[in-house]
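FAQ: What does a ligand-bound record look like?

Like this one, built around guanosine-5'-diphosphate:
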Amino acid sequence: MAFEGLSERLQSALAKLRGKGKVSEADVKAAMREVRLALLEADVNYKVVKDFVSKVRERAVGQEVLKSLTPGQQVIKVVNEELTRLMGGTQSKLELSSKPAVIMMVGLQGAGKTTTTGKLGRYLKKQNKRPLLVAGDVYRPAAIRQLEVLGEQVDLPVFSLGDKESPVRIAEEGVAKAKEEGHDTVLVDTAGRLHIDGKMMEELKAIKDTVRPDEILLVVDAMTGQDAVNVAESFNRELGLTGVVLTKLDGDTRGGAALSVKSVTDCPVKFVGMGEKVDALEPFHPERMASRILG
Ligand code: GDP
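The answer part, i.e. the structure of the complex:
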């Protein structure tokens, strides 16, 4: 289960405050020391932890909280609100205004980009959209075939020109085809590499300039913690992301990526991957996630 360790540690740090009739500043400080350690152990970015703890402490030692009838509960409420805020506050939805709206999927190899393209197509179809999937990952062997199989599974058409054409041309022709055939949404799968490199970024920029996407979604593997956050920072600097999809949240990820990526990059997490199957994609709700973590 994702966030299990973090969840347990935060709950035990805060349990000491919960039923207390009186809570002192020292009690809050002691609890916050444990919260700080729990977050660091979950691989949350150091600076994010520092800011989070000082914000909670400042609010929690305020007179309205400590002199309230249920001070322990109030401190926990502050922690919940700040955790929610850390993850973006409210749900960030896709903004699809162009006709057709273009969603460009980017990410490193193995993060789950192609799988997520299929999942997102299915999700949009359920919202009464008519998506076209475009197979632009020409470098990873079998990525095109993989998208075609996903397309069959979710009953959506897949546009492909094989792996000999340039990804820019594939994206451009895919969007033209979508227009012709009356699709309202185009999901362009792009090539990832094992590591970020200049050539990949140049190619992604060229695709961006050509198809002018409404959304550029970075797919990152939540299991990679701070690495995922660093990847998001680089992609955002080079391309300007509109959102992040965190995959593999069904695994035992510690929580660092989910809790840091918004603060570090200012890009909201829009979806989370919860498994390998095509229906395992969910919109990300910061408030629900915070409540789940705090139990
Ligand atoms: P790409 O190279 O980024 O296109 O990665 P793929 O889409 O091929 O995914 C790599 C592996 O991760 C595949 O085995 C997927 O089934 C798996 N995967 C993708 N998303 C998830 C997820 O949310 N949870 C789990 N458990 N596995 C996932």
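Follow-up question: can I read anything off the structure? Yes, for example: The chain has twelve helices and eight strands.
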